[in-house]
Amino acid sequence: MAAAGAPDGMEESGMDTEAETVVTEVPAQPLNCVDAEAAAGAAGEDSCDARGSLQPAPAQPPGDPAAQASVSNGEDAGGGAGKELELVDLKIIWNKTKHDVKVPLDSTGSELKQKIHSITGLPPAMQKVMYKGLVPEDKTLREIKVTSGAKIMVVGSTINDVLAVNTPKEAAQQDAKAEENKKEPLCRQKQHRKVLDKGKPEDVMPSVKGVQERLPAVPLSGMYNKSGGKVRLTFKLEQDQLWIGTKERTEKLPMGSIKNVVSEPIEGHEDYHMMAFQLGPTEASYYWVYWVPTQYVDAIKDTVLGKWQYF
């Protein structure tokens, strides 16, 4: 019966062959989709391992979701580039006219002036913009606590307004000079002689002939008015006013209300002038001042007629 099987510890030579045959003859099983993708991925990994680091990583296609997510994340990290501007409703009031506008709350005072220029035509350099005081050009509306519905007051004149005011003044001055040339000297007229005959005031300010000087920091004093009383002139440039002071009272006149200024040297005392400020439409409104030092005559005219502001 020994021939019926191999001795213990020995393998039969045909068993391996049969096993191999069995494995070989097992029919191939069809792969489902998941297995196919896994197999393809494994093959791709083996291929990449074989090629090593010599092959560069493939670039992401334009439509790759990861790339889009990266761009989106970049925008968020950039501080909200697409963030909406916070607007505030304002009422711009200029020249008795109201303009309703919307402007960004983070606009500066300088940018607000540009907006006002686009609405009114008023140049930024000639604007005074006020909200609880003068609006600083370098601060934002948010910083000065402007709220929705706030009223912004604007003061200023356009170039055309300035020219319209100055041109009649200059024309009136030229006409007055032409009339003066036709008449006898003012200082010979009876109405002026009674003042000039009193002589030069003892406390009159010194004069410098042939020289033009700026207005002094102190009032011009020691002069006479038409009634022979003492008078002084104070130029309040910050208020755009001329103060005419006498012993009895002080008249505070806006510079813009003075239509014209005329003057003439006093005969025999050419280093002093007699001067008139035209306060109304006719010569009857002249306010006369006598013994004005000649070096200040041009400065007075330029200051009152506004030339110092624009030239």
From TrEMBL:
Ranges annotated as biased composition (Acidic residues):
9-19
Show the CDD domains listed in the entry.
Ubl_UBFD1
Sequence ranges of Basic and acidic residues compositional bias: 176-187, 194-203
Low complexity bias locations: 35-45
Question: Which terms does the record give in the GO molecular function aspect?
Answer: cadherin binding; RNA binding
Under the heading PROSITE patterns, the entry gives: UBIQUITIN_1, UBIQUITIN_2
Disordered as annotated region, ranges: 1-82, 173-205
All residue ranges annotated as the Ubiquitin-like domain in the record: 88-155
> What is the name attached to this protein's record?
Ubiquitin domain-containing protein UBFD1
Q: Give the source species.
A: Heterocephalus glaber (Naked mole rat)
